[in-house]
Design goal:
The protein is an alpha/beta fold. The protein folds into 3 domains: about 120 residues, Alpha-helical ferredoxin (Fumarate Reductase Iron-sulfur Protein, Chain B, domain 2); about 160 residues, FAD/NAD(P)-binding domain; about 150 residues, FAD/NAD(P)-binding domain. About 35% of the residues lie in helices and about 15% in strands. The strands form 4 sheets. The protein has a 5-stranded parallel sheet, with helices on both faces. The chain has a 5-stranded parallel sheet with strand order 7-15-8-9-10.
Length: about 475
C-alpha cells in the first residue's frame, strides 16, 4: 500500500481520545482510549517525510520518526516496530507520558497542527505487542563481564537493556519491592498502568537480565563489595530528595511531600495494605497543591479520584503563555500553558502565589497564608521575586501537598561510600563518557543531569551503556544517542 504524499493536505490532526471525565474519575484506569490501527495509519500519512526532520533532532533518543511513519502509512508495521525498537527501550511508556518534544519540532507545525507523533509511537508498540513482534531475544553469546545497575527507573532499565543486548551479564538492583522506579510509584495508574511495565520486564527477564528488589545498595550490599563483584557499575538511582517548604507551621499534621502521597496512592491501587494511621487520603477534604508542574497535576488527579471536596493548585511563577512566545521560536520546545487531563477533572489554578505560612488548629493544618508576587529583572538580567503589598489572602486546606521539585540524589550511603564527586547542583559528576570520579563507576539519568523527563532518562541510560561497553571491551557497537 503506497502512502499518499499529500496526506498532510487532506487529513486533519486527530489527537488522543479520552474517557469522559464523569467516568474516569471513578477509577484509576488509564484516561485515554487506545485508537484503532486504521486511525494510526491515517495520522501517519500526515507526516511529510521532511528532508531535514527536526522532530528527529528534537527527540532525546533520536527516534526515526519520518521513517516509521512512512512504514505505518504503508501498512508495514513490522518494519516500523524494528526502527522504533532500535532507538527506544520503553516506547510504550513514552507513548503514554512523554510531553512530545518531537511534535514541537514538527515542520508541519510551523503553520498547521503537527503530526500526532506520540500517539503514532504508541500505536506501533501496542500493535507490536498485540501481534507478537515483541519477543525475548537473548544475546547469542555472553562476554563474561558483569555489570550492576543501581536503580530501576527509565535510565537504569534502558542501560540494562542495552548492555544485555551487548552480551554482558546485567543485574538491576532496586530497593523498593517492585521494579520501575518513579514510573512504578511516582506516576499514577490513570496515566501509566503498571501492567505496561510488568509486560516489558517479563520480556527482559527472559532475555537474561536479573532483577533484585528489596535491596538497598550501600546498606544491604556495601560499596566495596559492589566494586569487587562487578566489572562496572551504573548509578541510576534518580533524585528522590524532594524540595521542601520550610516555613512556619510546616510541622502541622496534614502536610505532605507530593511524592510520599503519590507513592502511597500507587501502592493502594496495586493492592498493598496501608496502616490506617499512615494513610493519606483526600476524601472529603479541601486540598491545596503547592507547585504547578506535572507532579502537582498528578496529585490533582489522584485527589479527585479519592473524592476531595475541593482542590486548588498554586504556583509561584507567572502563568505561561498559551501561544509560542517570540523568545522560544520553532523548533525549540516552548514553555506553554498546559491543561492536563487531571485539571479537566476539577481544579482551581492560581499563579504568582507565594505561601508564607501554614495555619493550624489543634496541631492540624486548616489553611495557608499567601501573598501575590510579581517578577522583575534586576540590573544583571536575573529574575527577582517581589511580594505585592496588600495582596495577602488565606486558603482553606485540610490536606496540603508540596510538589516543588527535587534537590538531587541521596548522598549519604552508597554515593558517599563510593567517594564519587558531585557537581555544583549536588548531582553525581561525570566526564563526557558518563564515568564518575571512581574508575568503572558510571552514572546516568536524573542522578547525573538533574530532575528531567523520562525520555531524557532513557537517552542517558543508552549513552551510559555505550560507554560502559566501550570501557569493558575497548570498543562498542551500541548506539550513542
Amino acid at each position: 500500500m503506497a502512502k499518499d504524499i499529500k496526506g498532510f493536505l487532506k487529513i486533519q490532526r486527530e489527537s488522543a481520545v479520552y474517557r469522559p471525565v464523569e467516568v474516569r474519575i471513578k477509577d484509576f484506569d488509564e484516561v485515554f482510549i487506545l485508537r484503532p490501527d486504521e486511525k494510526t495509519v491515517q495520522q501517519a500519512t500526515r507526516c511529510m517525510d521532511c528532508g531535514t526532520p527536526f522532530c528527529h533532532w528534537a527527540c532525546p533518543v533520536g527516534n526515526y520518526i519520518p521513517e516509521w511513519n512512512e512504514f505505518v502509512a504503508g501498512g508495514n508495521w513490522k518494519q516500523a516496530f524494528e526502527l522504533l525498537n532500535y532507538t527506544n527501550n520503553l516506547p510504550e511508556v513514552t507513548g503514554r507520558v512523554c510531553p512530545a518534544l518531537c511534535e514541537y519540532g514538527c515542520v508541519l507545525g510551523i503553520n498547521a497542527d503537527p503530526v500526532t507523533i506520540r500517539e503514532n509511537e504508541l500505536g506501533i508498540i501496542e500493535k507490536a505487542f498485540r501481534v507478537g513482534l515483541v519477543k525475548p531475544m537473548p544475546p547469542e553469546k555472553r562476554t563474561g563481564k558483569k555489570v550492576a545497575i543501581v536503580g530501576s527507573g527509565p535510565a537504569g532499565l534502558a542501560c540494562a537493556d542495552q548492555l544485555n543486548r551487548a552480551g554482558h551479564s546485567v543485574v538491576v538492583f532496586e530497593r523498593d519491592d517492585r521494579i520501575g522506579g518513579l514510573m512504578r510509584y511516582g506516576i499514577p495508574d490513570f496515566k501509566l498502568k503498571k501492567s505496561v511495565l510488568d509486560r516489558r520486564i517479563a520480556v527482559w527477564k527472559k532475555e537474561g537480565i536479573e532483577f533484585k528488589t528489596g535491596i538497598n545498595v550501600g546498606v544491604d550490599i556495601k560499596a566495596k563489595d559492589l566494586l569487587k563483584d562487578f566489572d562496572a557499575v551504573c548509578l541510576a538511582g534518580g533524585t528522590k530528595n524532594a524540595r521542601d517548604l520550610n516555613i512556619k507551621g510546616r510541622d502541622l499534621k496534614g502536610i505532605y511531600l507530593a511524592l510520599d502521597y503519590l507513592i502511597q496512592a500507587n501502592r493502594m491501587v496495586a493492592g498493598d495494605k496501608i496502616a490506617k494511621e499512615d494513610m493519606i487520603n483526600a476524601r472529603g477534604k479541601s486540598v491545596v497543591v503547592i507547585g504547578g508542574g506535572d507532579t502537582g497535576a498528578d496529585c490533582v488527579g489522584t485527589a479527585n479520584r479519592q473524592g476531595a471536596s475541593s482542590i486548588v493548585q498554586i504556583e509561584v511563577l507567572p502563568m505561561p503563555p498559551k501561544e509560542r512566545p517570540k523568545d522560544q521560536p520553532w523548533p525549540v520546545y516552548p514553555r506553554l500553558f498546559k491543561t492536563s487531563t487531571s485539571h479537566e477533572e476539577g481544579c482551581e489554578r492560581m499563579w504568582q502565589v507565594l505561601t508564607k505560612e501554614f495555619i493550624g488548629k489543634n496541631g492540624k493544618v486548616v489553611g495557608l497564608r499567601c501573598v501575590k508576587v510579581e517578577w522583575e529583572k534586576d540590573e544583571t538580567g536575573r529574575w527577582q521575586m517581589k511580594e505585592l503589598k496588600g495582596t495577602e489572602f488565606e486558603l482553606k486546606a485540610d490536606l496540603v501537598l508540596i510538589a516543588i521539585g527535587f534537590v538531587g540524589p541521596e548522598h549519604k550511603g552508597l554515593l558517599d561510600d563510593l567517594g564519587v564527586e558531585y557537581d555544583s547542583r549536588s548531582n553525581v559528576k561525570t566526564n563526557e563518557k558518563f564515568m564518575t570520579s571512581v574508575k568503572g563507576v558510571f552514572a546516568a539519568g536524573d542522578m547525573r543531569r538533574g530532575q528531567s523527563l523520562i525520555v531524557w532518562a532513557i537517552s542517558e541510560g543508552r549513552k551510559a551503556a555505550h560507554y560502559i561497553d566501550e570501557y569493558l571491551m575497548g570498543r562498542s557497537s551500541l548506539p550513542c544517542f
